[in-house]
Amino acid sequence: MRRRRTMNDANAQSVGTREPRPYGPGQSHTGGTPVPLVERENQMEIDAFLDLVRRRRSVRYFKPDPIPDEYVEKILEAGRWAMSGANGQPWEFIVVKDRAVREKIADIIKETRKHTMVIERTRAAELRHPGLDTFSVDPGFKNAPVHIVVCADPRTLQATILSGNFYGGDGGPMSTFYKNVANATFLINLAAAALGLGAQWKSINSSWEGPLRDLLGVPAPLSIHCIVPIGYPAGKSASPYRRKLSELVHQEKYDMSKYRTDEQLQEFLVDLRRRTIPGYHVQGNDESE
Ligand SMILES: Cc1cc2nc3c(=O)[nH]c(=O)nc-3n(C[C@H](O)[C@H](O)[C@H](O)COP(=O)(O)O)c2cc1C
Questions:
Q1: How far apart are CA 99 and CA 105, in angstroms?
Q2: 40 close to 23: Cβ distance less than 8 angstroms
Q3: What CATH code is carried by the domain that includes residue 116?
Q4: Residue-range definition of the domain harbouring residue 146
Q5: Cα torsion at 14, 15, 21, 26 (round to 10°)?
Q6: What is the pLDDT of residues 107-121, one digit of tens each?
Q7: Which atom of ligand 1 lies at the shortest distance from residue 238's CA?
Q8: Chain segment 157-187, per-residue pLDDT in tens
Q9: Is the distance from CB of 197 to CB of 237 less than 8 angstroms?
Q10: Is the CB–ligand 1 distance for residue 288 below 6 Å?
Q11: Does the CB atom of residue 283 touch ligand 1 within 6 A?
Q12: Structural domain includes residue 35
């Protein structure tokens, strides 16, 4: 079925000759009616898209105000459309709104944080996370009215080319699985930003995946990857640093003049830490990354 023509399409047509277009979904290049995949001038969309991408921030403190169910639906819809290796779609999303359950999640984090933060204490003092002495403080995201718990089923790896299960990319045979889940998680975060909501990528570490799995009844062999709390931001997020394009883009082949030595990389990491730590203070002493 043809997509309804929009005003933009009409404008685009009047601009003049256009390149031949790729075929739309469901159409092979050998038959059927070709449906233009891209029918309109995209400049406006890319600018709006880049604006959204730059505006999205990790939000770690939330107002308790509820968010409309249709927003949650749209956010989940974005996650559903993520790319995945061989279209394996390993993700499943648990939507947690119940305050009592959210309280329990916070309790689990507080309990295990006592142990995991021991490692942080071994860092040079000026590089330590400022939340070190606040083990018993609730995680900032507890107030977020919706927590999307991102789970995934590793059996979906069988969707992909079999050799991929033996010769994995970086990260080993499971790498495709993790990348897939990351794609869905990112789209969820981006969709929340598009709706003017805050969201965060709260990693699950192995010390609390077990208790969380019990709490939410997640069956083996599914794993829990992260929680994305969503709600209206309480306060402003610090604007994070990004490396410049000129530092990280190489034309045609790797430009060794941009290669960072071990010393330069160490300097980068220390500098990054110094830039990041004040941001924790802006948002509070959550155990954010
Ligand atoms: C794989 C991954 C894990 C992350 N885990 C956490 C986390 O556990 N807690 C947290 O506060 N932020 C977490 N983040 C968010 C990053 O800290 C954040 O993206 C980064 O500091 C840049 O800030 P921005 O998202 O506002 O651009 C994670 C992000 C990714 C991609």
A1: 10
A2: no
A3: 3.40.109.10
A4: 57-283
A5: -40
A6: 999 888 888 788 888
A7: 26
A8: 889 888 877 777 777 888 999 999 999 999 9
A9: no
A10: yes
A11: no
A12: no
